[in-house]
Amino acid sequence: EKKLNTKGLAIKLKNQLKGGVFSQVYDAELHNETVVVKHTENVVPFDPTEFFISKKAHQIDTKILKLLNKSKNIKVPHIYYYYPDIATTIMEDVRTSGFQLLNNLMLDNKLPSSSAKSIGTSLAYLAKESRTWKSFKTNESAEQSVYERGLELRLAYPNEQKQYLFLEKELTQNNIFWVWPDGHPKNMFVNNKGECVFIDFGRSHWGDQRYMLPNFLAHIVIYTLAGYIKPKQTQEYLQSCVDAYKKIEPVNEPIFCQYLAMEVLHRAN
Predict the structure, then answer these.
(1) What is d(CA 205, CA 207) in angstroms, rounded to the nearest whole number?
(2) Angle between the N-to-C axes of helices 115-130 and 231-246, in degrees from 0 to 180, rounded to the nearest 10
(3) Alpha carbon distance 199, 14 (integer Å)
(4) What is the Cα–Cα distance from 236 to 242, expressed in whole angstroms?
(5) Which of 114, 119, 189, 269 has a CA-to-CA distance to 197 between 20 and 30 Å?
(6) Mind listing the pLDDT tens digit for each residue in 65-119?
């Protein structure tokens, strides 16, 4: 807050918001308006199983938010101020427009079925439109991502690595396009119309875009297995989301199912 004040902003930080594993996220008051302040510091691992997370991810997040602010098909928070020297971004608080975190709604057994079509459509446009972006350096790689997210698959079949090696090859060799592997319910907001807003793109890389849709839907499966969503609703939700995605982008069903299963193993364990 003091650093932002020295930038000439009469801003007052209020509550630290949930989430923010690698960043500190607050709601704040600026010019009598509620905004969100995101600040990132380096996260140094405590043991060899963890990854070093650089605050450079904040730069990537802000860069992608700026790119998507130009999109007519994908909703993201508007950026008011960005200070790269202190890795801090001040952006729109979409909650003031009636949006709620999808993760919270699911925990309250209130998954809005109308969000399936909107999220499927937005993920498809995200894949399509990001293919027009000029290449830029990301903070992570496809190799790092599949090693982290495929670890439980490797442990589940210690004597047979064929499945993991196939997915590793698919994710890393199809690496000419941008991928958002962090597209889950904690990074999505929805309103009562089912419209969605995406946030937090710092953990992204170049790889196989076919991973993004099953990555999201794996979380719906996990919450169903945990009893937060009824199986019938999940079936309809998955179908609606996939159908919406297919109207814009093709879906390879075998690779879709394998990526989804890998992510279920990863997140569940």
Answers:
(1) 6
(2) 40
(3) 20
(4) 10
(5) 269
(6) 999 999 999 999 999 999 999 999 999 999 999 999 999 999 999 999 999 999 9
